[in-house]
Specification:
4 helices; 79 residues; three-stranded antiparallel beta sheet; 3 strands; Ribosomal Protein L30, Chain: A; alpha+beta
Length: 79
């Protein structure tokens, strides 16, 4: 399934333009959405804030919407 998503969709990167005070909120949202533990969520947030979190456009836009819903200014951008 994931291979088909990659074949049918352009790649995208999840970005947070102003990461100053969003670590805890982003960690909470990503932990819930990805079903990972605290350590994994911290690592994902570090990747997001570094601009290194990528996936297919639908995957990244989904996470960006969830983050924006929690007050984090996340955007889905093409690399």
């Amino acid at each position: 399934m994931r291979d088909r998503l990659h074949a049918d969709n352009d790649p995208a990167t999840l970005r947070v333009p102003d990461p100053s005070a969003v670590r805890v909120t982003a960690r909470r949202v990503l932990r819930a959405e990805l079903g990972v533990g605290l350590a994994e969520a911290k690592a994902v947030v570090d990747h997001v804030l570094a601009g290194a979190c990528s996936g297919t456009m639908p995957e990244v836009e989904y996470l960006a919407r969830k983050l924006r819903g929690a007050g984090v200014g996340a955007v889905c951008a093409r690399p």
